[in-house]
Amino acid sequence: MAEHKKFVARKSLGQNFLQDENVVRKIIKAIDPKPGELIIEVGPGFGVLTAPLLESGCRYVGVEVDDRLISGLRKRFGQRDNFTLFHQDFRRFDVRSVITHSGEKVRLVGNIPYHITSSIIFTAFDFFMHLRDMTLMVQREVAERIAAAPGSKTYGILSVISQTYAVPQVLFHVPPTVFVPRPDVESSIVSWDFQAPRPKPPQDAALYARLVRTVFNQRRKKLRNTLKGLADAESIAAQTGIDLSRRPETLTVEEFIVLADTILSMPENRK
Questions:
Q1: Are 42 and 15 in contact (CB under 8 A)?
Q2: Are 69 and 151 found together in one domain?
Q3: Mind listing the pLDDT tens digit of every residue in the chain (271 residues)?
Q4: Are residues 164 and 253 in the same domain?
Q5: What is the pTM of this model?
Q6: 15, 171, 190, 207: which could form a disulfide with 9 (CB 3.0–4.6 Å)?
């Protein structure tokens, strides 16, 4: 992994390249790739995860935004029949474009830039019905928010959205010393299982996301006040039986879904 030392990471891209082979092996073991599976890697970088993923016989798709890394990846892996690479920002990538047959599920993996972690995760959730699972390296603080339970201080937007569409789990933590350049924070490997039993998803994903963001952006306020811009609070209370004197961090995922579907059913929101 000597190429890491010569490469100048771009701060604008939030690049921290994994260089520890023991951690790589641990991540690959957690992913457990199998022949024929469709695996998309977000930001393959120098290919430290790419190589063992390809060796598994999976159908590999890499999505890399940094033009300086594209030629090296193609030179190293381009002769492999199971390797495809897109020079693109994952947030503008259509996961459906690489699905070859009806019912095929995608496995998403990557060591993603910390400053755009949330937007990458939310992009992935746009395609939740096509995902089997997702295994990402994220900042430890973010990992704890993703897995947080209702009532905790860290329970928020990422917690609710993640737990609506999947079952997230923090697998293990990774120290800053295994990256070049070295980040200031500890990292964690998080998995999301989209095949695990979950509540029926909200009828309108965009409205649901808007609801969750709206109430958590004013998390100190009671629901009665934060819901005013979305629908008539008293009507919501009457139809759902949810006490609107509560604050958003006390609501379960199931209650958020009930709220969103109730708001959608109101006359002013019917199309």
A1: no
A2: yes
A3: 545 556 544 554 446 889 899 999 999 999 999 999 999 999 999 999 999 999 999 999 999 999 989 999 999 999 999 999 999 999 999 999 999 999 999 999 999 988 899 999 999 999 999 999 999 999 999 999 999 999 999 999 999 999 999 999 999 999 999 998 888 899 999 999 999 999 999 999 999 999 999 999 999 999 999 998 898 999 999 999 999 999 999 999 999 999 999 999 987 776 5
A4: no
A5: 0.92
A6: 15
